[in-house]
Amino acid sequence: xxxxxxxxxxxxxxxxxxxxxxxxxxxxxxxxxxxxxxxxxxxxxxxxxxxxxxxxxxxxxxxxxxxxxxxxxxxxxxxxxxxxxxxxxxxxxxxxxxxxxxxxxxxxxxxxxxxxxxxxxxxxxxxxxxxxxxxxxxx
Length: 139
Description:
Largest sheet: 4 strands, antiparallel
Oligomer: single chain
Distance between the termini: 71 Å
Strand content: 35-45%
Number of domains: 1
CATH superfamily: Immunoglobulins
Order of helices and strands: HHEEEEEEEE
């Protein structure tokens, strides 16, 4: 009896985990929220020179141009030196939202080109924004 219960529990656990893996961040959203559209007001940013070791914050503005609430499910940075922050609440139609990112320039001298991948309940489920920062050596 215990073995049967254990096998059943394990089967349910793995079945639930496999279902979660099949859904990409964008696909999962379209099942719970309507599809909408987004207009990027800032999709590329150029940050002036910074000294190595400084942390720099940048933002990318967008407008929900569709008729359903815009839900940002995930934001991924192209490397660990950048920490993105997504809106915690849905952005209503016609309203503006922001994606924030903090770049740590420590150990990154020279020109740095960083990308953020944003997953949302939009027609194209992934969007890419980019920023460029030139890091000067501290002397």
